[in-house]
Amino acid sequence: WLDNNGMLLSRDKILEMLTEKGITKDKIIVTYCTGGVRSAWSTSVLTDLGFKVKNYSGSMWEWSASSPDIYPLEISRKEGVGSRGF
């Protein structure tokens, strides 16, 4: 969601990018990352844009510390929305 200078893209551009990925304001979005910092930032941006957002602040550090029997990690090669998804 940043341009080449590290500035946040316009509201319209971000909304266009999300719409292209099938993300609409009627869906709940859960953000996560490795440690919770990037997901908190994404949550803030998405909330400001009017989306319903929940931040999994424990993110992958918390998830990976849990028992894999209780919280298995499923890996998919499908491109999603995230830091490299745009």
- Kindly report the average pLDDT value: 84
Largest sheet: 2 strands, parallel
Q: Globular, elongated, flat, extended or rod-shaped: what is the shape?
A: elongated
Give unreliable regions as ranges.
Answer: none
Structural class: alpha+beta
- How much β-strand is present in the residues? 5-15%
Give a short summary of the structure.
By secondary structure, the protein is α+β, with helices and mostly antiparallel strands. The protein has helices at residues 11-20, 37-48, 59-65, and strands at 28-31, 52-55. Helix content is 34%, strand content 9%.
Structural features, described:
- This protein is α+β, with helices and mostly antiparallel strands.
- It has a domain at 24-73.
- It is 34% helix and 9% strand.
- The protein has helices spanning 11-20, 37-48, 59-65; strands spanning 28-31, 52-55.
- It has a two-stranded parallel sheet.
- β1, α2 and β2 (52-55) form a beta-alpha-beta unit.
- The longest helix has 12 residues, at 37-48.
- It is elongated and about 40 Å long.
- The mean pLDDT is 84.
Q: Which key phrases capture this entry?
A:
two-stranded parallel ribbon, elongated, 86 residues, 34% helix, 3 helices
